[in-house]
């Protein structure tokens, strides 16, 4: 805790503010928001599927071009909501602080450094 925080708490006669785990608090907020968004999008998709069934029935019965246009727009909106649902995890990972980064390495080309005799011996040993 810094001196300014202590001095202000004494002057104002209040408890000093302690920030223990900002990362945990931020992570909890992000988790809560992601879960809230996920639940809402799932509910919208469920309601949209029910509405879609009714729209297709109306379009089929009326054979009106506008009814088919509305049904097509509803299909596009449902597809977008499904994409949004899948994007939540990616966005959640982007928002969370990076704790550990893996030190993995991709090797595109391997180069043998040595004489041809050593290469032949190496290849013979690998065949056996």
What do these coordinates show?
The chain has 128 residues and is mainly α. It has one domain (3-127). It contains four helices and no strands. Helix 2 (22-62) runs antiparallel to helix 3 (65-95). The chain starts with a helix and ends with a helix.
Please state the average pLDDT score.
83
| Beta-strand residue percentage | under 5%
Biggest β-sheet: count, sense, barrel?
none
Number of domains: 1
Structural class: mainly alpha
Helix content: over 70%
- The unreliable regions are none
Spatial gap, N to C terminus: 65 Å
Report the C-alpha radius of gyration, rounded: 30 Å
Order of helices and strands: HHHH
Sum this structure up briefly.
It is built from four helices and no strands. By secondary structure, it is an all-alpha fold. The chain has one domain.
Which key phrases capture this entry?
128 residues; mainly alpha
Task: Note the topology.
Blueprint: H1 3-12, H2 22-62, H3 65-95, H4 116-127
Helix pairs in contact: 2-3
């Amino acid at each position: 805790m810094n001196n300014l925080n202590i001095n202000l708490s004494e002057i104002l006669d209040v408890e000093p503010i302690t920030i223990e785990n900002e990362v945990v608090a931020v992570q909890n907020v992000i988790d809560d928001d992601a879960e809230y968004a996920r639940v809402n999008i799932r509910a919208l998709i469920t309601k949209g599927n029910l509405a879609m069934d009714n729209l297709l029935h109306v379009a089929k019965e009326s054979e009106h071009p506008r009814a088919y246009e509305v049904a097509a727009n509803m299909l596009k909106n449902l597809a977008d909501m499904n994409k949004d649902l899948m994007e939540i995890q990616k966005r959640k990972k982007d928002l969370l602080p990076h704790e550990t980064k893996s030190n993995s390495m991709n090797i595109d080309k391997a180069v043998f450094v040595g004489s041809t005799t050593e290469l032949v011996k190496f290849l013979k040993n690998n065949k056996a």
